[in-house]
Design brief:
The structure holds two protein chains of two kinds. Helices cover 36% and strands 24% of the residues of chain A. By secondary structure, chain A is α/β, with parallel strands linked by helices. In chain A, the strands form two sheets. In chain A, strands 6-7-8-3-9-10 form a six-stranded mixed β-sheet, sandwiched between helices. Chain A starts with 6 loop residues before the first helix and ends with a helix. The mean pLDDT of chain A is 87. By secondary structure, chain B is mainly α. Helix content of chain B is 72%, strand content 0%. In chain B, helix 3 (34-61) runs parallel beside helix 7 (170-191), helix 3 (34-61) runs antiparallel to helix 10 (217-243) and helix 8 packs across helix 10 (217-243). Chain B is globular and about 55 Å long. Chain B starts with 7 loop residues before the first helix and ends with a helix. The chains are: A alpha/beta, B mainly alpha. The complex binds adenosine-5'-triphosphate and magnesium ion. Magnesium ion (MG) binds at residues 60-61, 103 of chain A.
Chain lengths: 265, 341
Amino acid sequence: MNKTLNRADALSLLQSSGQYALELEAISRHFGALVALADINLSVKAGERHAVLGSNGAGKTTLFNAITGDFAPTTGRVRLFGEDVTDLPAYERIRRGLRRTYQISLLFENLSVLDNLYLACRGVSRNRFALRRPRRDDALMASAETLAAAVHLETVRDTPVGELSHGQQRQLEIGLALSGAPRLILFDEPAAGLSPGERAELVDILNSIPSHIAYILIEHDMDVALRVAERVTMMHNGRVFKQGTPDEIENDAQVQELYLGDHHG
Amino acid sequence: MWRFDPDSFRASQVRPGVIVVAVALLAYPLIATNFFIFQIGAYSLLLGTVALSLMMLAGYGGMVSLAQLTVAGFGGYMMAIFGTNSVDVHGFGWPWWVLIPSVILASATLSALIGAISVRTEGIYTIMITLAIAVAFFYFTRQNYAAFNGFTGFAGVEPPQVFGVNWRAPVPFYYLALAIAAFFYFAVLYGSRTTYGLALQAVRDNSRRMNSLGYDVTAIRVFAYFLSGLIAGTAGIMLVWFNGRISPGSISVSVAIDILVIAVVGGLRHPIGPFIGALAFVLLENFAIDLIDRERFNTVIGLVFLFIIFFSPDGILGLWERIRPHLMRKPNVARSDGARK
Ligand SMILES: Nc1ncnc2c1ncn2[C@@H]1O[C@H](COP(=O)(O)OP(=O)(O)OP(=O)(O)O)[C@@H](O)[C@H]1O
Ligand SMILES: [Mg+2]
């Protein structure tokens, strides 16, 4: 493997590795007696934009943890780009092109924005154990700067992350997920707690993601989700409740009843 | 805080304070007696170097290991077994230029092994498991006569005559200890801002996030043990030369805890901390005895430990950082310092 993949490499890899970015087979996850996920089957095509909807506790974050390997599923198989990764640790999955953001920002608060992004770029490249200081002209430093601009943080790139606003921290979460050459990104409620202005900025960022990158977006705001997604999965009580195009989901009577009913609870 | 600016080190390196300390350390043997050069100066530097290996692990890696002295002691034993000793057990007499690198590498490998066993644990459990390893090694050396010569251990372990210098003599030994301490001090300081050093500190702060950025957290931690083993093993060689002997008593749990006390009292946030802690410890050890009897020494150490931790969780280093602004009452300096945090 040679440094970070460029886009042409990523695209050719994508074509060689089959049609699906992600295939889940009968995934379940138990926490003691609690069944957080039960028999989830889901596939996401390469380059597909997928939204996952569902009320609080439906199992959306647990599903992401099973895909990334943060917490292994109790049963079932996970295939990434055609390869069975069920037994691989999270970092190996990341190196294969998977990325994620966290529902509650998980950032290095003492480090600057650029240093956070540099770490993310380094994590999917070589020389992670280099006992040298990065040089001024380090290629990954340049990538970090490009990423800072891509998530609209160039003005605060030297600010310690702990001093950023909530919205900026959410943007940085996305920046970390865009490092290297991602092929599938899992966004866990990136819009949570954002003001309408920040929300618009977020939709901008999501829309500017290159089209060969697939993503799954967990989003409570149905309007946002239905606007950016090509396919939608509706989860309820750890199961897949409905799957379809945004139109189908929006006009589904059962979904409307369930979603509106839960929304106030 | 831990920043990642490639230029920041170069700028801070040439502060006048650094030059004053360097000159004082170099000129020290010119004014001190042999007792002060050897028993105080050299010994502080050696204990400080062992504690530095712990500071690196604990301060940058968040892993508090009580097995650092075990690694150093292992190095000492290897010197006695594969080098020369006066008790007629083993003493294979390897030439120094084979012996020393082999022993340092073997110590680092042992340290990595200890790391591999303990890195899956966190916090108090790391302390417990490394304590268990330290205790096990202590009893093993005490009972094993075939390799470690049991209770007696080894004596007559001396440095080689290289360049015709008697390295055991106070002044050469002091300079050797100083060179080694300075080398590792600057290596750790430099290392803290390398790519690996940054990754290690990031693992300490947020291992889950590092995992999901593509880092093998376990490998990063085990490698930290390996590096700290290079430091501890080297210090172990110097310690066995300093004492001339090694036995289970040299690696007992109470000494292992002394190392922890030295590192914590000195301060875990900067590699200078362990050396400050070591000097304080050695001075107390030598002169508190004039004021109180030997039996009470541990009480004094314990009280000093409590006092410092109570007033400054960052040790003497943190105490100094708190006092300094009051000493330098230039309002502008104080303000810009505070703003930078
Ligand atoms: N580590 C855990 N231990 C025990 N139970 C857990 C754990 N993580 C999740 N759960 C439970 O699993 C269920 C699904 O949780 P999950 O976080 O996946 O929901 P979610 O759909 O992401 O909800 P939200 O919209 O609130 O983020 C919940 O009942 C939750 O309490
Ligand atoms: Mg969630």
